[in-house]
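LOG
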Amino acid sequence: MPVAAEPAREPWYARLRHPAEPGVPAQRTLVGVLTPDFAPGVVVDLPGDRRPSGWFVAARHDADGHRVRAVHAALPHAPSLWYVELAEPDADPPAVTLVAFSDTGRPDGDVLTEAEARAAGVHGEHQVAAVRWWPEAGLVHQLYVGPEYRRRGVGSKLLHAAFGVQKARGLPDLHGDGRRTDLGEDLRRGLPAYASWRLAPLTQRLPPMTPGG
């Protein structure tokens, strides 16, 4: 009996180009794909805007800068999420926080800047989850999911989104060390194989971020 090939752990990337529109910056979409069609890490320019079969994350960004406008994950059973990106350039080390919301205020995958969120009247108390990481290293620092949204795929979808934001900027792959809470370890175990290996085995159990969590 032939041995089934292991699922790909390292993706290649498709780059989709969007037609320029008057007054709108030229945009690209970087799509992570888990198939053997190309070598891991290779970026392939493709015509059109269709995501290849086997994609797992897609980040639409300005072609001439670091602004990420939308990020989608191939997790159809997770709730709809949209995001606000909070940059912390003066932190030591510099950090980024992606805050997730799950309401009908924005389309799934939309990413707002802090200024856009403020102008739109977005309130932080309505957030359902957040992930903070150090972009220069790609290391996740904190991950929080509100109690009513746990075990629904929100944490996994948020990590996919953060991975897409990081890759769209050409920065090191997002990953985690061995320090996390019990809920964080449960999340790691529930991630797909292509993602779970990016979180190191548990080495230090941290206290819960919420009482009784």
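LOG (cont.) second protein
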Amino acid sequence: MSLQGLDMFQKNIQKNIWENRRIGITGASGTLGKELSKAFRSKGSYVVGLTHRETPHRAQQSNETPNKWVQWNCGKEKELETILTSLDLLVLNHGINPGGNLNTEGLNKALEINALSYWRLIEIFEKISLAKGENHSIKELWVNTSEAEIQPAFSPSYEISKRLIGQMVSFKYSSLTKDQRKNFIVKKLILGPFRSKLNPIGIMKPSLVADKIITNSSKSSKTIIVTPNPITYILMPITEYLRELYFNFFKVRNK
């Protein structure tokens, strides 16, 4: 088989994986959210865009936008429970970046949006995923913690919030039993700098990042890393391994 033929074969496999699956994306009106929506829809998925902004008018929708828009606000995650129940995959991608400002207000806002609202959605989706029932199916969660989880992002509040949710997701994964992990698949998105409103000087194209995320999602690893920085590919697995050892120590001790 030629290289071109192999590439087409891999793309067809990817399309079959995501066809007719229901995908929910928070931050769907942002740069990466838009590109993920476009990429998933091109593979036959039904995309629900979750946004804090006013939902776009139907006339503004196209094959490159979510099939359905849902407006929500941090602190009201419980209102999304019905929507979350219908999803096969939830991508937590919303967030803010206060920049280099050193003030309590910016930090509180970053913690609420980038970490605490994520955690509330994770808890709700976990409960749904592990519930027993006739229509029970395997559900998947992707959490965008970004490269800022382990490296500087020149934004202290952003870094603190991302490191917090990064550790919380590691904690959640470690707390699951082997059987629970079969029904509730948890992955982190560790992304390098891509061009967006939050980062206008990012060096990666958001469309490329979205495609790489989906392509690499088929791997068994619990991290999906997309970055030009080779150090991240070394540091992130080591960080996750050490965290797992740490959390497993307490699991064994508490038995």
